[in-house]
Write a structure and sequence with these properties.
Layout lengths: L7 H76 L9
């Protein structure tokens, strides 16, 4: 049995030390608090992961789509610059 890189002998040692430090009456309360903290951390981790994936997808689509828009913008810019070019005839 290996949890978080901690084997069974290490877990037993940690439990004995916790029992000595907190006492038998406080130990269930400490365990409950620790469980809630770990659960909250896991939920925050999952939320961060989903937000990260959504942002990565948005960036990926943004990188792919401007290439098409950029060529259209160049076409519009060249068309506008040709139509806005000053005429060669001078008024006198």
């Amino acid at each position: 049995m290996n949890v978080f890189g901690i084997g069974l002998p290490e877990m037993v040692l940690i439990m004995v030390i916790a029992l000595l430090v907190f006492g038998p009456k406080k130990l269930p309360e400490v365990g409950r608090s620790l469980g809630k903290a770990i659960r909250g951390f896991q939920e925050a981790s999952r939320e961060f992961e989903t937000e990260f994936k959504q942002e990565a997808e948005q960036i990926e689509t943004a990188v792919k789509t401007p290439l098409k828009l950029e060529s259209k913008e160049k076409e519009v810019a060249t068309t506008n610059s040709e139509s806005n070019a000053p005429s060669t005839s001078q008024q006198g």
